[in-house]
Amino acid sequence: MTTWQNLEKQILVYAPDLSSDNLAKVEDLAARHDAKLVVLHPKDFNRTLGQAVGLGTPLSKEGPGGKLVLEVSGDYTGEQPEESILYFAGFPHQDIPAFLKETSALLGDDNFDLKASLTPSNLGWRLIDHYEELMREHRMMKSFEFLYHADMFLNTMDAEEYETESYEQFSAAVEEGRVSVELLKKGTDVAQDILDEQVAAINMAYRSLKLK
User: Fold this and answer.
1) Which phi and psi angles does 57 have, rounded to 5°?
2) pTM of the shown model
3) Is 93 in contact with 26 (CB distance < 8 Å)?
4) Does position 70 have pLDDT exceeding 70, yes or no?
5) C-alpha pair distances (Å), 71 with each of 53, 68, 127, 136, 170
6) Residue 25, class by beta-carbon neighbours within 10 Å (0-12 exposed, 13-18 middle, 19+ buried)?
7) Which residues pair with 39 in a beta bridge?
């Protein structure tokens, strides 16, 4: 009987736009790492992560965001996920960075958008729920990186080179974003719409910067 403890090494991929040649490259790479390749399709997103790797794991009673998950019935028929995903299952943690480096070299711009590892705590999540959580984290990280680098850029600027009003507007927008950066560093969630507004405000203020 297959359990989490004796789960074979598997690479799960969801990439509807990946060419057959590139998929073959990933399959060959997985084989070189003694891992089985499992290709996921949109219809599979109603299954749990555990079921996707052959564990038959039942749904957790409480899914992401505290949503109560009662049952899975049939194939997934909702909106097709757009981002590609690479999942590691039964894969030694220390081997993952090397695999990711190799997939990046193999696929270039066609590399996977999202990467994640299966753990005992997420086996009961439906693929679609886990995908939405990955997307939420991905968007938040992108916003964090933008706000963080905007703050770094502000620190390199010489205020004397810019018209006062445009510089102050840019500085104020960046400082608002800095508050969110500090909260995220502490592990405090910030609503994505707030992050989106701060990113947009910085972009607008940057475009309005005027040299003296």
Assistant:
1) -65, 130
2) 0.81
3) no
4) no
5) 18, 10, 13, 23, 50
6) middle
7) 13
Per the listing, tokens 């079921």 go with: 51
Write down the pLDDT at residue 67.
Answer: 44
Domains, the chain, in order of start with CATH, read 10-125 (3.30.429), 136-207 (no CATH)
How many residues appear in the chain?
Answer: 212
Distances in whole angstroms, Cα of residue 61 to Cα of each of 4, 48, 161, 181: 19, 12, 58, 33
In the chain, % helix, strand, coil (3-state, to 5) comes to: 55, 10, 35
Tell the burial category of 113 from Cβ atoms under 10 Å away from its Cβ (0-12, 13-18, 19+).
Answer: middle
Residue type (1 letter), 201: A
